[in-house]
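User: Sequence recovery, please. Input:
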């Protein structure tokens, strides 16, 4: 077992993923040493955060000897989110009692690409049951705490990953997003979270999730790490239902090129009329001012979208998809799901999905596709569109309570994410950047949305803001 020194821990905590991979490539540090650094910091910090719910150090130690030092992310310690993605030998429970004994027996295509990129799994990050919360408080594993302030949410559903990355347990980790679940925890925890374009990362061997509404990528501390991870995972397989255009250069290369003068729209007015907090509004206005100072053309534009109606249609669709997933899982679990196997909100989702007829479901899907066109069309004049990631500061732990039995009442609490889910519908790339902090040290994310398939512009403008409004030296109270 490699020796862990104070010098190694300092280097580990101060480096992003590409920085660590560079050290591995130059043989200044070994993959084995990085596994032990990650294990030391997870053991030290996780009792305060509950961000890592499966510690897989032995898997990481075994894999360290096989890491290709020339891989782009060689030897970088990594967390896989406890939702959907399958890494052979790792638990795969969806944070649900119904799946609590599952261990993955195969690699999903994205995981194969993670391994090829040199990422080394050291644990699984916490997530709410089946991902249906914008906080991370599963009954099975308990709540993840925000490293900036223990009594506020770390966000969800990728809250475990975002908290671990913010605390510097790992420099990068998997995240996924069905209604804001990459961007929202990134905002709550002060890290970078990109939801890519629809179809950018294949879901193979699965065909599709939520008619293109669910996306997989990462949370990281730097824009360049996000770009490098996108390079590692991007690409459709023959027969995939969505195939966005692919640039001729890598995203890491494109992200480093200052963009031409862009036309940028912004809004601080939620399209459903709900209030926006002082801090999220200030964050967007400051970002708009910074973008204008960088030479871009910036103008205010409020979204033309009935988000209340769109939210009902979208969530009704996801109920059917969730019910179908549980029905398909009976052959693996060996019995149907029961009310006692899942949290009350999940059971309400399953019941509504079962009760929705095929014609009504197809009508919802058609409406979502019409909404996709309308959202993208409304923002078509802009190269980028800037919004709050959340309309309010992170809510207290317990606010999004999955023991709620009334599904409509539960879904109505998601008004803070009114700027997030529309881009799950439209398929456009959207990133949350940690550009603002409150006086008492709570991070506030700003969202930038690009045209479909144009992650390059999103990343390049993000790099500009990262340089103009740097965040890399900010550390939460609970961190390495």
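Assistant: Recovered sequence (480 residues):
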């Amino acid at each position: 077992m490699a020796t862990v020194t104070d010098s190694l821990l300092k280097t580990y905590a101060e480096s992003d993923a590409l920085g660590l991979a560079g050290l591995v490539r130059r043989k200044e540090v070994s993959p084995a040493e990085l596994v032990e650094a990650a294990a030391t910091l997870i053991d030290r910090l996780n009792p305060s955060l509950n961000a890592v719910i499966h510690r897989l150090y032995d898997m990481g130690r075994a894999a360290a000897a096989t890491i290709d030092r020339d891989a782009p992310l060689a030897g970088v310690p990594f967390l896989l989110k406890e939702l959907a993605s399958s890494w052979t030998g790792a638990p795969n429970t969806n944070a649900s009692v119904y799946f609590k004994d599952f261990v993955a027996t195969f690699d999903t295509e994205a995981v194969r690409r993670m391994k090829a990129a040199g990422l080394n799994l050291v644990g699984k990050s916490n997530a709410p049951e089946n991902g249906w919360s914008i906080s991370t408080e599963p009954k099975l594993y308990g709540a993840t705490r925000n490293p900036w302030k223990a009594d506020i949410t770390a966000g969800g559903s990728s809250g475990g990953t975002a908290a671990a990355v913010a605390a510097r347990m790992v420099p990068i980790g998997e995240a996924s997003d069905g209604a804001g679940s990459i961007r929202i925890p990134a905002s709550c925890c002060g890290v970078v979270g990109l939801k890519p374009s629809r179809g950018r990362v294949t879901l193979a061997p699965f065909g599709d999730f939520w008619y293109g509404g669910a996306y997989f990528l990462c949370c990281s501390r730097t824009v360049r790490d996000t770009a490098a991870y996108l390079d590692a995972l991007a690409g459709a397989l023959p027969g995939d239902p969505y195939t966005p255009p692919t640039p001729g250069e890598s995203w890491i290369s494109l992200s480093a090129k200052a963009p031409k003068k862009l036309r940028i729209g912004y809004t601080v007015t939620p399209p459903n009329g709900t209030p926006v907090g002082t801090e999220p509004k200030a964050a967007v206005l400051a970002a708009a001012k910074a973008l204008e100072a960088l030479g871009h053309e910036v103008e205010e534009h409020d979204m033309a979208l009935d988000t209340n109606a769109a939210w009902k249609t979208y969530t009704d669709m996801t109920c059917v998809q969730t019910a179908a997933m549980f029905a398909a899982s009976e052959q693996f679990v060996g019995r149907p799901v029961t009310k006692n196997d899942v949290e009350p909100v999940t059971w309400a989702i399953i019941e509504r999905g079962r009760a929705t007829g095929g014609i009504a479901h197809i009508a919802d899907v058609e409406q979502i596709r019409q909404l996709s066109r309308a959202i993208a069309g409304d923002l078509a004049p802009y190269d980028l569109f800037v919004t709050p990631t959340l309309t309010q500061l992170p809510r207290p732990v317990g606010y999004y309570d999955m023991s709620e039995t009334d599904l409509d009442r539960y879904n109505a609490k998601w008004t803070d994410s009114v700027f997030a889910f529309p881009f799950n519908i439209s398929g456009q790339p959207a990133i949350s950047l940690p550009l603002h902090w409150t006086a008492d040290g709570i991070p506030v994310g700003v969202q930038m949305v690009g045209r479909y398939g144009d992650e390059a512009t999103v990343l390049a403008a993000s790099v500009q803001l990262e340089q103009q409004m740097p965040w890399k030296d900010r550390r939460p109270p609970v961190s390495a």
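The mean pLDDT is 98.
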